Amino acid sequence: MNFFFKKENRILKSREFRYIKKMGCTRKSPHFVLLTGTDTNDFSRFGITVSKKNGNAVKRNYIKRFLREFFRLNKHNFSKLDFVIIVRKTFSKKNSILIKNELDELFSNK
């Protein structure tokens, strides 16, 4: 099993983010909005959006590292789709176990 998080597994271009936001399915939770788009690749891809309302750069980078690590460890469980996670302002790093459970629940309802 490969646990790398390669560049091909990331959504990097703003036009891809816009396309998934426009055409994808939306699922919401207290801390996240999950956008799911179709993909023609043989693997799933992942993108993260964290606005400046979530705090300074240190906090935003912590959130992105946390989400990338979640995706890296669980990407073999996901179907071959594009996923974009938009982090809501209510995100708190104090409850990391609760956040992981929320992400598991959010992705399990594919």
TrEMBL record:
Role according to the record: RNaseP catalyzes the removal of the 5'-leader sequence from pre-tRNA to produce the mature 5'-terminus. It can also cleave other RNA substrates such as 4.5S RNA. The protein component plays an auxiliary but essential role in vivo by binding to the 5'-leader sequence and broadening the substrate specificity of the ribozyme.
Cleaved signal peptide residues: none
Gene Ontology MF terms in the entry: 3'-tRNA processing endoribonuclease activity; ribonuclease P activity; tRNA binding
Enzyme Commission number(s) of this protein: 3.1.26.5
Keyword flag Kinase: no
Pfam families: Ribonuclease_P (PF00825)
Highest taxon of the lineage: Bacteria
Family: Belongs to the RnpA family.
Gene3D superfamilies in the record: 3.30.230.10
InterPro entries linked: Ribosomal_Su5_D2-typ_SF, Ribsml_uS5_D2-typ_fold_subgr, RNase_P, RNase_P_CS
Keywords from the UniProt entry: Endonuclease, Hydrolase, Nuclease, RNA-binding, tRNA processing
Protein name: Ribonuclease P protein component
GO cellular component, as recorded: ribonuclease P complex
Catalytic activity: Endonucleolytic cleavage of RNA, removing 5'-extranucleotides from tRNA precursor
GO process annotations (BP): tRNA 5'-leader removal
Subunit structure, as described in the record: Consists of a catalytic RNA component (M1 or rnpB) and a protein subunit.
